[in-house]
Batch of 3 targets.
Target 1
Amino acid sequence: MTSAVGAAGTAPAPQPPRAPTPPATAQAEAFAAALAAAVGQHGGGTATGLRLSGHARERLAEAGVSPEGAQWEAAGLAVGRAAAKGSRQALVVLPTCALVVAVPERTVVTALSPGRMRDHVFTGIDSAVFVN
């Protein structure tokens, strides 16, 4: 019969058991979305916590849409809902425009006016949120 004995004639020290990593839950995802929203509000974005890329600013100016008011609050909430579902790239459709948003960064990548939305194919998104 053999036994595990170290070079100095002693048995090796037992290793403590590793704690299992808990799975991500909806509550953890909701907290992450709320944290991202709070961080976004202090990171140079709009009052909703959404940041605008330069390209999105140009497109909104062309459409005559201002990133403020009740619609933008609704857009911020829509992005939060998309984040809670695990979305990475979302299409947020507002009455005045459509926004493609990088959800984890809460950054509006581009915006389209209703006229430009017609016959447009949106690619690279994993969710869509319609806001009234």
Target 2
Amino acid sequence: MSERRYIRATVFERAFNAVPAFLARLGISVYGSRLLAVRGRRSGEWRTVPVNLLELDGAQYLVAPRGETDWVRNLRASGGGELRLGARRQAFRATEVADAEKIPLLRAYIRRWWFEVKRFFDLSGPEASDDELARVAPQHPVFRVET
């Protein structure tokens, strides 16, 4: 299980996140973005948030750069959700990835989206060593998307 860590979005980041969320609703993916829909763990209502869908070696993953966000907690409770892009809905089950297995996934994620997520990772850069990635792995939940 991940160390409890959560970096709250700033007002600017919330406003910025509205753009890829709006575009995903229109069916436009910005650099791999999707709209993650997951049932609230208390309310049961659908909650949505823009995410970057990592595709690596024929599999799909969701990485939580901010740590234990509400979507992470909801996904753990529900065990699955939907990835949305326009009218397309991809229902999925989620399996949380163990810390020891995260290193290549985090490496691929930060190489692709470093410009966007660098403030959430305590790393030297997109070419961080395995030791650095192993150190931060417990702070960043990762889920395998299984359709």
Target 3
Amino acid sequence: MNEPIAVLDACVLYPAPLRDFLMHLTLLDAFRARWTEEIHAEWIGNLLANRPDLKPEQLERTRQLMNAHTRDAVVENYENLIDALELPDANDRHVLAAAIRAEASVIVTFNLRDFPAKNLAPYQIEAVHPDAFSISLIEADQATVLMAAQRQWHSLKNPPKPLEEFLEILKSCGLIKTVEKLRFLFEENFPIK
């Protein structure tokens, strides 16, 4: 299977449940995830600023695990592309530069207005909301996406969560249509008798 290459913007790595879902998907080769150390620094910095209960060491371990377990995830040597790029917010140019260098077709982000189609089109890249991205993965290979969701759900042990609670957590992360589809797939494949 020729899985899509997607650069994950910091905003989709910030919420742990969404980050975990995307990681389970990429670990099952539903897509090839890419990011930079700059993207890591952004989501980690924002999370530490908003969650004083978290320690930098915890998030550093998460960063290390993500880099270690995801094939060729860290994009390098993209910095020389930044100055030539135009986006509404100059601070987002590093994400587009990483996508160009990674030969990605997608930037997964909540901030679609920050990545206008007219600015991305010359590079054959599109910005996609994580819900739409997940739906596209389901359309391509629903068994793999269901397996990723199932693995994430079963990994929640402290405390374990009922399926419906797990799905509501994903829904609260913006995966509205994805959760509708996952609910149907769980019912279809694992009917409760």
